[in-house]
User: What shape does this take?
Amino acid sequence: MTQPSSATSELKADAKQSVIGEVSRRQIRKRLQSLFGLALVLIIALIASPHSPRGGLIFLEAGNITDVLRQVSEIGIISLGMTFVILTGGIDLSVGTVLALASSIVALVLTRVAFGVASGVAITAAIAISLAAATFVGFTNGWIIARLRIQPFIVTLATMIGVRGLARWLTSNTNIDIGFGADLASIFSRVFSTKTMVIGSYVLLSVVLAAVLAKTIFGRYVRAVGDNEKAARYAGLPISKTKITVYTMTGLLAGCAGVLHAAQNHQGNPNSGVAYELEAIAAVVIGGTSLAGGSGSIWGTVVGTLIIGVLTNILRLNNVDSNVEMMIKAGIILGAVWIQRAGKEAS
Amino acid sequence: MKTRLMALVAALTVCLSACHSGSSAAKKYFVAFSQCNNAEPYRAAQNQLMDKLFKDKGDVQLVIADAQQDNSKQIAQIETFIRQKPDLLIVAPNERAPLTDVMGRAMAAGIPVICLERDITQDNYTTFIGADNLSIGKMAGQFIVDSLTRKNGKPRGKIVEMRGLLGVEAEMERYNGAHDVLKAYPEIKVVHEAVADWLQDNARARMLEVLRAQPEVDVVYGHNDPMAVGAYLAARELGREKQIQFIGVDGLGGPAGGIKKVMDGVLVSTFYYPLCVDKAVEVGEQILHDPSFHPDKKYILQPKLITAENANEMYGKLTF
Assistant: This one.
């Protein structure tokens, strides 16, 4: 029953792709659409920003803008990976606990292990160990989803619970504090909590992953798997490999966020990262990526992350009650998706 | 699409303008309070009291931000406050190390900072106002010794402890303080230590298990009132609440607080852990009005035993 219809849709897709001009025009329109949302929020921010005693807008102060960018960086980095996962039609609920695991491990290694080598090497090693652990969790997710064919929601729900347990077990459920002295952990915290490092990491990863998704064959596989897995299978695409790679990458990215989290918070905390997966999913969805898979972009996700970040900032600058803040955010998520659907219906 | 957009823009504008007008009351001083977690009853009581006391003074616009037990969120909120340059910043840190740096930045920006209840790793504050959990633990330990002596003729009996979230400082100090006292009495035995993460429902579940295993329990020491109440509920379910004395900590006012539970006879005692807010408002007002005023670096407030004898009086004082 479904085979003929999927075949015709493939034919249609072919026909569409032959009209390259139309496709790229639509892409541009789509980009403008998500940018439009950001522009809207920025305009609101400019109107609603309180004035500083010296007269300027507080929102536009360089310090404030970089505050916002730094504040969104952790969720931003996680949501890059989440974009790939959702593009394949999957979901990853374990990213928040992977962040906690990575932050705990990097702090544990730095405070408990005597390296006896130059501090640069030791810090690199500690980060590498924590990223390796995060990557391994991601690989496990991907392997189970692709090889054992269990639904991503269930697999990552299980790892979410298990990894939280692992992080607590490793740390005996205590926070591993990082001081302000001249020891290894303190140096790590000082270097990796600077705005340049945090924002720089986010920008760099965004640019690289946007290129990977838009310009590489792997990126095309990711979309194809999410768009129509059956068709992709008949076309002989490496579905399992693509899925495993995507989840592994997401684990690694959550690990990166975890390392930055430990540095910025001066501690490895096995209980942090609660509900981060939901914030990341929200950013991806606001950015126009469909939860059904197949369509979306890194570009959109970055815009979605910024929309949430700017909005949060402007609400706080106006001292809006945090409970009201949550209600307004709920409205934004629904509103953004509603507008995008309108855009799709029109095209 | 256009109509949908227009609808959204209109809704947002209404929302924001409503928010805007709400916060534009012209007061002389702007005081920002960064609270670590409104969801805890102790924290909610702090907020209520601070709101009331500053309102009474009449010259302060108070803004309370709730960090929802999230260090990153609290750091972000304080960063935003620094941009707004309040006349006074009060911080109840979620945890020590993560908040130390950002409070230092507030100090560097010339904002007076009061650190409330939980100390940080460096003295990045104008003044610290806190209370002493270790002495609460010791008072609780001594109270247990005294009441067991009254009940059994000598310091002898079986204790069950309901512990808060492990690794948290308040939990460790309330635990260590009591054990410092109890270890001198070999006939007093802690027969079970259950971890209930400060929560009433967890404590009830743990206590049901404990009561199945322990035929004899004299005292339950809950590291906070809700856990002591949860243990009481479990004992009542099994008809054993009359044989056990329940002791809590926190002693909050109001109908849901521990003092009311003492008045109701659920708890034999609780220990008032100071909200620290009255002192903070007193010192804060001095900082606001008198630029030459230099507060002490630290104020440590003393806990207070609450039993049936003084519960009524304390309830009146601590209910806002």
Chain B touches chain A through 39 residues (CB under 8 Å). Residues 24-125 of chain B form a domain with the Rossmann fold fold (CATH 3.40.50.2300). The mean pLDDT of chain B is 91. The longest strand of chain B covers residues 188-195.
